[in-house]
Write a structure and sequence with these properties.
By secondary structure, this protein is an all-alpha fold. 70% of the residues lie in helices and 0% in strands.
Length: 134
């Protein structure tokens, strides 16, 4: 009984030690970014002029309001691209696990469920008329 308890404590300690390394790296990364931004703020010259406060648009002086109307369909196409990009990101790790012995049927079912969700989303977009370019 005592040996089982000791083994469980050892596994838990090893588990948390692995995550403490990840946490330490995350803290170091955040500190690195904070120091870089702080150094940039301290070292850059601050000379505000009216020209610097204008909206820059390819060298042309801005005309009219700052609000522009954009059609929603461009965002929908971008969203559909992101969905299929996530699909391709999911496909590569799935293929490596699918090749491992003992995981074939489970990962195949998972992939069909995932592709089913994608197909339902694509069918919904098609039914709403989002995929027609007008």
């Amino acid at each position: 009984m005592a040996a089982d308890h000791f083994a469980a404590d050892y596994v838990a300690a090893d588990y948390f030690q692995a995550y403490s390394v990840v946490g330490l790296l995350a803290v170091i990364g955040v500190l690195f970014v904070a120091v870089a931004f702080g150094a940039g703020r301290l070292l850059r010259p601050v000379v505000p002029t009216p020209e610097k406060l204008l909206t820059y648009e390819c060298g042309v002086d801005p005309v009219g309001e700052g609000w522009a109307h954009t059609q929603v369909r461009y965002y929908v196409y971008a969203f559909l691209y992101v969905i299929f990009a996530v699909d391709s990101i999911f496909l590569f790790p799935w293929a490596t696990v699918f090749a491992a012995p003992g995981y074939g049927a489970t990962t195949l079912v998972e992939m069909f469920i995932f592709l089913g969700f994608l197909a339902v989303g694509l069918l919904y977009a098609y039914k709403k008329g989002v995929l027609t370019w007008a």
